Amino acid sequence: MQSGQTPCVVIAGRPNVGKSTLFNRLVGRRQAIVSDMPGVTRDYKEGEARLGGRLIRIVDTAGLEEAAPDTVFGRMRASSETAIGQADLILFCIDARAGVTPADRHFAQFLRRQNRPVLLIANKAEGSAAQTEVYESFALGLGTPLAVSAEHGEGLSHLMREIADRLKGDEKDALDEAGAPVRDTDASDASDDEVEAPINTGPLHLAIVGRPNAGKSTLVNALLGAERMITGPEPGLTRDSISVQFRDQKGEVQLVDTAGMRKKARVEEKLERISVSASLEALKMAEVVVLVIDALLGVHEQDLQIARLIEREGRACVIALNKWDAVADRAATMKAVSDRLEISLAQMKGIPVITFSALTGAGINKLMPAVRQVHDIWNCRVSTGELNRWFEGALERHAPPLVDGRRLKLRYMTQAKARPPTFILFGTRAEQVPEAYRRYLVNGLREAFYLPGVPIRLQTRGTK
Ligand code: GDP
Ligand code: GDP
């Protein structure tokens, strides 16, 4: 934002989420003016609003959708691009009642690449009818959604304060530039050594792993039977792996390696070695890993070993407790499993556990939604502003410890990359943060930004 100019706030989102309604709320119909925007054939609405003592320009991109051909997303994008290019802040609206749609996801992905501040708005959230959908929108990677009802005028004062706050942050960042390190560029410098996997727009890469006889083959067959298979078995990347593709409700899924199904060929090998090494191969190619555990046997040390591999490789994970049909005391079994995971897998807190029977198919429909959810979380991005608002609170609640008699000065955090979520902590002697404090921060991040079932990386960078 250039100083002296009126800051520009752009309202964007797919059609029908309530952009115009919000615009009218913020601007008031009186003030609405219509002006031409170069590059698009349709007019866009622009108005002024007063926030505190400050005048801001508000641009409504509604109605621009019809301007360009192609898909809904293509239309939204082409038409909104020009407006977004001038935005100091984007209000990205979703419909809290409809939940997050594929068009929202696409748009969010596009916005994340624009490198402009985005405030996620869950509109139509009057009452609290849409709580779960609001929750789901965390997965868009645009921070905590702000629930409002444009039509009923709920949550608007909160929204105005947020807008004012974000625009103030802009001014401050600009001022900071000379002295303090600049956030986002620092993040990309710091992550030189770790290149983020490209955003995968193709199928979701899924691996199903577990000990022999946990029921992996049965599960794969059930999945392929229940979902429409679009390609048959084809040679995979390793000598004896098989790769198949199928479609679930959200799109295509590639089973990267149906490991374990080859077990018959290798009976002479020690069972542990087979399952762990085969799992390792499979999960290297996967984005999400389903760890199948035989509920009749409970969590075995080898299951934990595989789970730790998943963590080490940075993959998202869902635990599938199979053979649920044959479990006599379900409550006791669930408790035993949860306790074991809680104690032995602290680094993957809150990992989703799904129970089903691969054999009968009961409960199997819960699996793919859980997989999709951790995949979204694995891909998510938390904005620097959001992150540091949380970080300040975390420092206040629990001050950094003394190291060699001096208190560590931790300054700020940024998310360097996703897949898995990787954060960088900057501060004087940040690299000396003790393990316990690091765990406190990681657990806090996991809770505050809702990141269950994915590894969280926290790197440290010392500053002068
Ligand atoms: P746009 O296409 O994104 O500009 O959406 P509109 O502003 O035209 O709104 C689309 C529809 O959603 C209209 O029927 C509005 O009345 C309705 N709408 C907008 N805001 C709210 C809201 O807060 N709650 C509910 N229930 N409906 C809303
Ligand atoms: P894999 O070695 O992990 O591929 O395991 P399989 O799919 O070959 O299954 C091992 C055994 O467990 C077979 O006898 C299956 O019939 C049985 N099994 C698999 N899933 C279930 C289930 O949900 N319930 C029960 N009762 N048995 C199952």
Could you explain the architecture of this structure?
With 464 residues, the protein is α/β, with parallel strands linked by helices. It has 13 helices and 19 strands. The strands form 4 sheets. The protein has a 7-stranded mixed beta sheet with strand order 2-3-4-1-5-6-7, sandwiched between helices. It is globular, with a radius of gyration of 24 Å. Bound molecules: guanosine-5'-diphosphate (2 copies). Residues 15-21, 62, 123-124, 126, 149-152 line the site of one guanosine-5'-diphosphate.
Q: How is the secondary structure organized here?
A:
Blueprint: E1 8-12, H1 19-27, E2 33-35, E3 44-51, E4 54-60, H2 72-85, E5 89-95, H3 102-114, E6 118-123, H4 131-136, E7 146-147, H5 156-176, H6 183-190, E8 204-210, H7 216-226, E9 228-235, E10 242-248, E11 251-257, H8 271-284, E12 288-294, H9 301-312, E13 316-322, H10 330-344, E14 353-355, H11 367-378, H12 384-397, E15 402-403, E16 406-407, E17 409-417, E18 422-428, H13 435-448, E19 457-462
Parallel strand pairs: 1-4, 1-5, 5-6, 6-7, 8-11, 8-12, 12-13, 13-14, 18-19
Antiparallel strand pairs: 2-3, 3-4, 9-10, 10-11, 15-16, 17-18
The structure holds guanosine-5'-diphosphate (GDP) (2 copies).
